Amino acid sequence: MAEHEGNTIRVALAGQPNVGKSTVFNLLTGLNQRVGNWPGKTVEQKAGTCNVDSWTFQVVDLPGTYSLSANSPEELIAREYIIKEKPDVVVAIVNAATLERSLYLVAELLPLPTPVIVGLNMIDVAEQQGLTIDPRVLEAAMGVPVVPMVAARGQGIHDLLARIEEVTCDGAEYTPNTPNIRADHVDVLERIEELIGGNVPAEYPTTWVALKILEGDQQITDMIHPRLPQEAWSEVYQIIQQHEDTCVAVAGGRYAWIARMVRAAVVKPRIGPISLTDRLDRWATHPVWGLLVLVSILALSFALTYAIGSPLQELLHRYLVQNLADLAVRALDTAPTWLTGLLVDGVIGGVGAVLTFFPILVIFFAVLGILEDIGYMARAAYVMDRFMHLMGLHGKSFLPLFLGFGCNVPAVMGTRVIESQRARLLTIIVSPLVPCTARMGVIAFLAPAFFAAPAIVSWALLATNLAVLVGSGLLLNRFILKGEQVAFIMELPLYHLPNWHTIAITVWHRLLSFLRRAGTVILAVSIVIWMLSTFPGGDPETSVLASVGRLVEPVGMWMGLDWRMMLALISSFVAKENAVATMGVLFGVGESGAGLPAILRNTLSPSAGLAFLVTQMLFVPCVSTVATIKQESDSWGWTLFSVLFLLVVSLAGGVFAYQAARLLGW
Amino acid sequence: MMKDKHHNSRHGLRLPKRSNQAEQISLSTNNSQPLTTLNGGESAVVQSLRGGASFRSRLAALGFTPGASIRMLQNLGHGPVLVTIRDTRIALGRGEACKIHVRPE
Prior knowledge:
By secondary structure, chain A is α/β, with parallel strands linked by helices.
């Protein structure tokens, strides 16, 4: 046991966004990783292990942050982990192509007691930009190991592990060259150090704390305040008041240090070559062409998703779900009918229907993963920023909303990229208005039943949803979630070739949340719905569910919908695609022999059909999404609000569509 | 006189909302202008940052520190702008860009 302990090295992986940190993490841990949340936070935590020789490397992936100030929960988590959990070593990944900027985090890490190793990643990209970097010179200047890497091709990973071993084992004194504050603030810093000296908790280095106080760091200041004698605190307070601009001076000092570090190590061309990124961005960020590029890419993504995904879904349904149902019927030949019903209609019918969406989701998330990985999505956010401002949001909200076209669950989780709480909540509330693949699937099935031109109707429904989304955003921003516009500051990374490993892992994690829910929530609710539709007596017409349906029928009257259609709507709360399955059961498709579209055409007028389609597109999000909204907003109040809000919006939309269509004589 | 102006602008930083306009006037004599006045392709040097402490700290961490050279890549006169600073392309909302004061090269 003791020996095992001695062979374990705890590594914290730090780095700014867009430096290839997750590539390094995935390379080190492979599928040997756990994804969860940092305790008490909605910030993703990734940890994993890597066994090499006789060593076990326990790697914790710290959130990607530009600095270690207290500006965001991510930054707090990263620095608290290093200070409190004391990993054996911090590996700081930097991007060689944006060396100055990405060394800023290193400048923040060096004054902390944990030894740092710098992973100088993307040296191939730097070379393409005409930069020559000598890692040995950089290493000598900073006084910490520097490992050149091309993580996307797996280069340098073994050197990195060897250096980690070396640093943790040889026990040599750790004396990095650390940055100083800008010369005009040295006195102030020393004075603060004197004042707080002796009152700083043991795990914090005094100079670092003094620096953070000068930077105006609220968390550190609040920690120190109660520990100081009254006079000392008032002097510290006075100094902070007089030097309110110090955060810029401290940052300036770090950049001056970086300039000294890279001066000897980097040779820059006087005029860089016109890079691929420059050429592509001329189109991708152009106010007119950029929009066209975006629209074309979106259209292509959808076309690809449905062109490949829909036939696969069909196949899955025909061969997997139906064969499984047949198999169950045969195997349960002698079993009581209720058991067969439960298994075939409840479990296989409910969960199976959801699982057939798997191919569509895989393709959509893969396409999106590629767009994200090569760096395009940041351009999309930039181009969309102007439009998102209409709703009091900015470009960053576009990414999660777009994810919603696949499935609303990862969309709600994806709002984590938005810094402001208000903007994040607003995005969460409007995101279910993005029609997911399941709802589009229902539309694709039902629109031909009512209309001669189903494609036009589908596009009109999609446009309606997006218009309602913008309208709701406008209203919420104006009346309910009022507040200040948050700063839009976003890096546009250099374009690079897709890294399939990273994309595969991203897609896998997004799908996992979908699969996990199919196996739990959706399974449970499918069984409950089946039971309610069967008991008592086994006839859906007289079941408990039917009485519920008749209860809400008066609301349906306004939209020309009978209790069966209202039940279909309600069952879509479990999973959107259930709407079709429920109709199948209630309209007795099995017995009659006629297809559901034909039955619907004979039962409902086109205006009622339209009302149903509009309502189901705008309806309350599915139970998985609602659960995710609760988890991400951390508030029952807002979860309830979003459900009620969409209930009202969707019913109003349905009534309006029905009455308008009737006026038009449909 | 110069010293006084400097002093004023220091106070202005503490109360950005009230003295924004006065500041812009006093600084225009200092040859410093908001980033949004640059046209696409023009370069400048960062002079100072306005706005709240956490906003300035975020910008400073990204490399917007006095003395850093900055190049405007795209400025349409409305909406966000696109700049390069320290080899990084950064998109900034117009309001944010207004709070970065620069001296054209």
